[in-house]
Amino acid sequence: MAEAAYANIQQVGMPQWTQDEQAFARAVQRTVKGKEEGLATTVKKLEPPADKPESGGSDDIGDISWTVPTITLNYPANIPNLPGHHWSNAMSMATLIAHKGVVAGAKVIAMTGIDLLAQPNLLAQAKGYFTNEQQKNQTYVSMISAEDKPQVQINADVMARYRPEMKKYYYDPSKHATYLDQLGIKFPVLEKPKN
Known about the structure:
Structural class: mainly alpha
Oligomer: single chain
Order of helices and strands: HHHHHHHH
Distance between the termini: 50 Å
Number of strands: 0
Strand content: under 5%
């Protein structure tokens, strides 16, 4: 599945970044003393997992990946070379950088889904590898039982109290071309506008 997805990544290619987007990315990298190289313009090569991984991203697909063949896709919606779990990582989310990256990723996911549906041998290979290699010496037992229920009521009062204030920041595409326009920010900028 990873190889099929990678073929689709190569076909979709990287988003076409504007000079403003590149300047903004380099300015954010410079601000947090990251490697200042802007946004990637070429697709990285497909590589096998590291023998001794030191770190990795987290996700919420753990139970799924133990029961069906699963791959993950990193798409170019973030500014590279920033410290993890840091305010600087949120900056691209309000820009076209994130939008372009998500669109590219969505295209790859859709194309790979079509490949899996249209090519029965590809799906059979994925299931075979999952069963005969990944699950060969593993037995999965879920830590969540059928009786466990999501505790959605825990934050209900907090959300009810703050939701009206949060709604001011919801993006309204009927009034604004971009979220930056809604916030009154001229792109690129790294200082709060004086209003």
